[in-house]
Amino acid sequence: MLPSLPRWIAHRGGGSLAPENTLAGIRLAARLGLRAVEFDVMLSADGTPVLIHDETLERTTNGRGRVAETADAVLFALDAGDGEPVPTFRAAASLCRELGLLANVEIKPAGGYERATAEAVAQVALAVWQGSAHLPLLSSFSLEALAVVRDRAPQLPRGLLYDQVPADWHAAFVELDARTLHCAAGQVDGQLLAAAAAHRVPLLCFTVNCPEQAKTLFAGGVAALFTDRLDLAVAETAAYNRLQPSA
């Protein structure tokens, strides 16, 4: 089952405080007290699911070329920032389970690899979280990838991911048997908030780094926010917890 969502999710592992999509970022988020992290997964040329956001290597590593055309032997020798290697999804998943973190795994296939990426992610997730009561949340912009997960690993919770949510989103949500709806924070309006509330669908928004925007979104009923500002998440969570009635 999917555990109750924390209000804040560290974007790409450690937000802006560590190289993105690295084990160092995940460890940092846990040390700071966050209970959930998000990261991106695509396939190497050898079919290994790895943590990286872009289809190309230049922005986040010292390598060059397309991730999907880079062999593991080359990929894992690269520097993803501050000496951190590009991690495998299995390593990141195992670390999240060890640290008790909810993992929001964004299936981010290179063009043409939607099915293969989803199958590889589902296989690793099932193996790493076998026997766990708290499963990862697998999200994607790719409806094909989410359909693969639904069919191959229906027990894994799925999140439907959009930049701007289309008017017919709920039909896709039902078809994919999704659990959460994700979208860009700047695209949220009253109509979407009302529809999500009416269907009792948790709405998750990215990427929120402004306290005022966070306050507005939470007040409107948004369930959780992705952030690069881990300091903001820690401070807001502490303030929120102080206002909750004692058990």
UniProtKB/TrEMBL annotation:
<dbReference type="GO" id="GO:0006629">
    <property type="term" value="P:lipid metabolic process"/>
</dbReference>
<protein>
    <submittedName>
        <fullName>Glycerophosphoryl diester phosphodiesterase</fullName>
    </submittedName>
</protein>
<dbReference type="Pfam" id="PF03009">
    <property type="entry name" value="GDPD"/>
</dbReference>
<feature type="domain" description="GP-PDE">
    <location>
        <begin position="6"/>
        <end position="237"/>
    </location>
</feature>
<dbReference type="GO" id="GO:0008081">
    <property type="term" value="F:phosphoric diester hydrolase activity"/>
</dbReference>
<dbReference type="InterPro" id="IPR030395">
    <property type="entry name" value="GP_PDE_dom"/>
</dbReference>
<dbReference type="InterPro" id="IPR017946">
    <property type="entry name" value="PLC-like_Pdiesterase_TIM-brl"/>
</dbReference>
